[in-house]
Specification:
With 454 residues, the protein is α/β, with parallel strands linked by helices. It is 28% helix and 25% strand. The chain has three domains: 1-38; 71-275, 3-Layer(aba) Sandwich (Rossmann fold); 281-452, Ribosomal Protein S5, domain 2 (2-Layer Sandwich), CATH 3.30.230.10. It is globular and about 75 Å long. It starts with 6 loop residues before the first strand and ends with a helix. The protein binds thymidine-5'-diphosphate and magnesium ion. This is DNA repair protein RadA.
Length: 454
């Protein structure tokens, strides 16, 4: 048997070296390097993930292993985010703030996949079996044929899985799992990394899908090194605002489907309910159009979603005015303020600017530029944008407007929700088929002129 080689790993960034040092070369952290023995070379001596170095021609694979058969949970919002269902042998990481509803979602998913004919094991290191069962009963899933395991020793879990051969295993959470030959506490980087690695290798080897829950740190990253995200096939984030009822499941990486796809859920007394028409939900709290409020017709993944941008512009006595953004990129807001100032001669100096995406949704499309600009102008001039109007388009540094993708889909969604006008860049592929009346603008100066008759 090969001698176990020493492996020194930085607990801060996950960088591995062959010798110990007081300071990590990769991230500069002091005293963060500890010795690790890989589990595959640990007691028992069996290399868990090893297969013989058998070579297969790519063309041979194509015929037998192309287009993996997927299992749909029939929770439509979940299936869409997964890229059409669960791929056998895939490793999935679900991250999110504590209390956001990860365990609830995954218990519902476990029951749904069990109903779809999968053998499902739910391994919880956070809650006792009785607690999970109580939650299942509250969700009306008491009869679901899901096996529960309250276990944190990964070797025991893997032994069970080898024997049971389930189609899907849910591990809640990866931070509670404990690999017995890594000498650090559960939840440490080394443990999280080792546990994720063992589970991912197991998934690939046995064709079992593995869903791991991961807690996120204060700055919104999945706790543990980035390498965990690289190991798995799919990374999903479950996000939402505390005060709001709805939750968004977003794919940030997916080897088996589109990234940036979202599924929308509502937290109810009986668990998470699907929201099949998110636009209606995001706009539901909208009253009569007020200055600073603009509806943006966005695309999330493969689907158009309408959201409301709200801006407030107010004079400030401070020499450094505030720029506060929720749900959008602060840097992008600064850029739009600069373009408005430099190209349209509309200054925001001496004014506090607050920008908010209603309902706790996060937007990162550049296509929202024009909606943001319109909201800022409308707030600053205290003039409401005409009702039943949606806005979208990208703004360049010159102040010109650039058409964005999926114009027709954005218009169709807006029309479906009762909007009749759209403000958008000139030159896009808008055909007018949607029946919307279109105001197509070449640049920001034209928009200012149209909105305020300047
Ligand atoms: P949970 O799934 O335990 O969150 P996580 O696993 O991400 O930490 O969800 C906990 C919250 O969800 C809790 O504050 C109560 C709420 N909740 C409901 O509102 N309705 C329900 O049916 C359930 C099960 C939970
Ligand atoms: Mg939980």
């Amino acid at each position: 048997m090969a001698k176990a080689t020493a492996n020194f790993v930085c607990q801060s960034c996950g960088n591995a070296t062959s010798k110990w040092s007081g300071r990590c070369d990769a991230c500069g952290e002091w005293n963060s390097i500890t010795e690790e023995v890989p589990l595959s070379q640990g007691p028992g001596g069996k290399t868990l993930g090893a297969t013989r170095g058998r070579k297969v021609a790519l063309s041979d694979l194509a015929t037998t292993e192309a287009a993996p058969p997927r299992t749909a949970s029939r929770i439509e919002e979940l299936d869409r985010v997964l890229g059409g269902g669960l791929v056998p042998g895939s490793a999935i990481l679900v991250g999110g703030d504590p209390g956001i509803g990860k365990s609830t979602l995954l218990l519902q998913a476990a029951a749904a996949f069990a109903r779809a004919g999968q053998k499902v094991i739910y391994a919880s290191g956070e809650e006792a079996r009785a607690q999970v069962r109580m939650r299942a009963q509250r969700l009306g899933l008491g009869e679901a044929s899901v096996q529960l395991a309250a276990e944190t020793n990964l070797r025991d879990i893997l032994t069970t899985l080898e024997a049971e051969k389930p189609g899907l295993v849910i591990v809640d959470s990866i931070q509670t799992m404990w690999v017995d030959n890594v000498a650090s506490a559960p939840g440490s980087v080394a443990q999280v990394r080792a546990a994720a690695h063992e589970l991912t290798t197991f998934a690939k080897r046995q064709g079992t899908s593995v869903i791991m829950v991961g807690h996120v740190t204060k700055d919104g990253q999945i706790a543990g090194p980035r390498v965990v995200e690289h190991m798995v096939d799919t990374v999903l984030y479950f996000e939402g605002e505390r005060g709001h009822q709805f939750r968004i499941l977003r794919s940030v990486k997916n080897r088996f489907g589109p990234a940036d796809e979202i599924g929308v859920f509502e937290m109810t007394g009986a668990g998470l309910a699907e929201v099949l028409n998110p636009s209606a939900l995001f706009l539901s709290e909208r009253g009569t159009p007020a200055p600073g409020s603009v509806v943006f017709s966005g695309i999330e993944g493969t689907r158009p979603v309408l959201v409301e941008f709200q801006a407030l512009v107010a004079p400030t006595p401070q020499s450094q005015p505030r720029r506060s953004v929720v749900g959008w990129d602060g840097g992008r807001l600064a850029m739009i303020l600069a373009v408005l100032e430099a190209r349209c001669g509309i200054p925001f100096a001496g004014l506090d600017v607050y920008l908010n995406v209603a309902g706790g949704m996060k937007i990162n499309e550049p296509a929202a530029d024009l909606a943001v600009a319109a909201a800022l102008l409308s707030a600053r001039e205290d003039i409401a944008v005409p009702p039943e109007t949606v806005v979208f388009g990208e703004i360049s540094l010159s102040g010109a407007l650039r058409p964005v993708g999926q114009t027709e889909n954005r218009l169709k969604e807006a029309q479906k929700l009762g909007f009749s006008n759209a403000i958008l860049p000139k030159g896009g592929k808008a055909t007018g088929k949607s029946g919307m009346s279109l105001s197509q603008m070449p640049d920001l100066v034209t928009l200012v002129g149209e909105m305020f008759g300047a």
